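User: Can you model how 1,3-dihydroxyacetonephosphate sits in this protein?
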Amino acid sequence: MLVSATEMLKKAKEGHYAVGQFNINNLEWTKSILQTAQELNSPVILGVSEGAGKYMTGFNTVAAMVKAMDSDLGITVPVALHLDHGTYDGCYKCIKAGFTSIMFDGSHYPIDENIAKTKELVAVAHQLGLSIEAEVGSIGGEEDGVVGMGECADPDECKQIADLGVDMLAAGIGNIHGKYPANWAGLSFETLDAIQQKTGIMPLVLHGGTGIPDEMIAKAISLGVAKINVNTECQLYFQEATRKYIEAGKDLEGKGFDPRKLLAPGCEAIKEIVKIKMNLFGSVGKA
Ligand code: 13P
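Assistant: Here's the modeled complex, given as structure tokens:
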């Protein structure tokens, strides 16, 4: 069931758990994530970066595929189709294409410009029934060409953006896209706590979910995080399973070259990691 993320995140914040956003790259990714959410009776958010949207030939293709797949698989759990780290133009394209949720990442603009653009997009998104995520501070590392320095968000600026009526707020708290370096300082819970004090019931979003230790995830949820984004970890699980299949020479046995066989171990691996994350985030059975 395709819906905006508003209700599922409100419930998550009240229930002290988090909904996972898993980024998609193609049909196999989408199918594996949707089937797992249904099996575990969990709400889910499908994240689409602008790079992944382009790879899948455009946001219209993505929206049409997800809608049709949701229907053909008989998915009854709430599913939000969400633009990840959207530009101003990208947000309008996704609204037009039929996404149910958008993220406007104005974190690289001066705060006044971030506020002005976010405010305009909140009005447009809400009028059409979409949910909207905004960002303050920045997520370190690189994701599909979006590079951030990883500076922690200013809690007062978070309040200014939250007051615009966004449905969820991504705030940099020392989190990084991709693998964490060995000398990573960890999440800044002091910053997260200060942001939660200022923004109250606002569901907070933790980007860079790959590789954050379980106890830090639990603490982040206890301090108001209600959405956690995972991208790289699904890619690593897919890669590892595919590598094993090829290295075992299974593609050379019988019809092992059939793409449906070749991609199957990777798909099973994505299901496995999505299950692990949904259990960790506490969203299982919460649909
Ligand atoms: P990871 O790739 O580190 O899991 O981050 C995902 C993310 O934050 C998507 O916006």
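A couple of observations from the model: The pocket of 1,3-dihydroxyacetonephosphate is lined by residues 23, 47, 84-85, 143, 177-178, 207-210, 229-233 (CB under 6 Å). The chain has a mean pLDDT of 96.
User: Helpful, thanks.
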